[in-house]
Design a protein that fits this description.
Number of helices: 4
Low-confidence stretches: none
Number of strands: 7
CATH architecture: 3-Layer(aba) Sandwich
Number of domains: 1
Shape: globular
Oligomer: single chain
Largest sheet: 7 strands, mixed
Helix content: 25-40%
CATH class: Alpha Beta
Order of helices and strands: EHHEEEHEHEE
Strand order of the largest sheet: 1-2-3-4-5-7-6
Length: 158
């Protein structure tokens, strides 16, 4: 059975290993990344039989009263991909963001994530959660690659 809970100190090694596998071998940066995921921002982790199989992290941008949130990290261990865990993590993340804002009495305006154009699985995942491409930017994170800014709006349009 899959359980999704807020990340605690016990998830630190998961985030360190995630950083090292995706961004390089700098242990000090991996530790800072893990600390940011657990203590500065808000992360959720998916577990099966007490093993962390995935995580997602979101961050308030420009202060809570802006209503702007970035999802800046989502990963699933390779052997668990393609089984719906990513979709479940995004769903629970959106619920977490919505209830975080509601409990504090602030309106949520927009949630966004930046996805590389070649990440078809990620693009389809967020499109299925009512995100749309609001902007694109060439060479933003990688040379000769297009990044897409997927957004989900919560504000009322006139």
């Amino acid at each position: 059975m899959t359980d999704i809970q807020p990340a605690t100190e016990s998830a630190r090694s998961y985030f360190i290993n995630d950083y090292l596998s995706r961004y390089g071998s700098f242990q000090d940066l991996a530790e800072q990344y893990a600390d940011a995921c657990i203590f500065t921002n808000r992360s959720l982790v998916a577990t099966i039989n007490d093993k962390i199989i995935g995580g997602i992290t979101w961050s308030i941008k420009e202060g809570i009263n802006s209503g702007l949130v970035e999802i800046f990290q989502m990963s699933i261990l390779k052997e668990y991909r393609g089984k719906g865990y990513g979709s479940l993590l995004v769903e629970k993340c959106l619920q977490d963001i919505e209830s975080f804002y509601c409990l504090r009495g602030y309106p949520l305006q927009r949630v966004y994530i930046i996805i590389t154009e070649s990440n078809i699985i990620g693009r389809n995942l967020y499109r299925n959660k009512d995100f749309y491409v609001a902007a694109s930017l060439m060479n933003h994170r990688f040379v000769n690659q297009m990044d897409l800014f997927y957004v989900k709006d919560y504000f009322i349009k006139n």
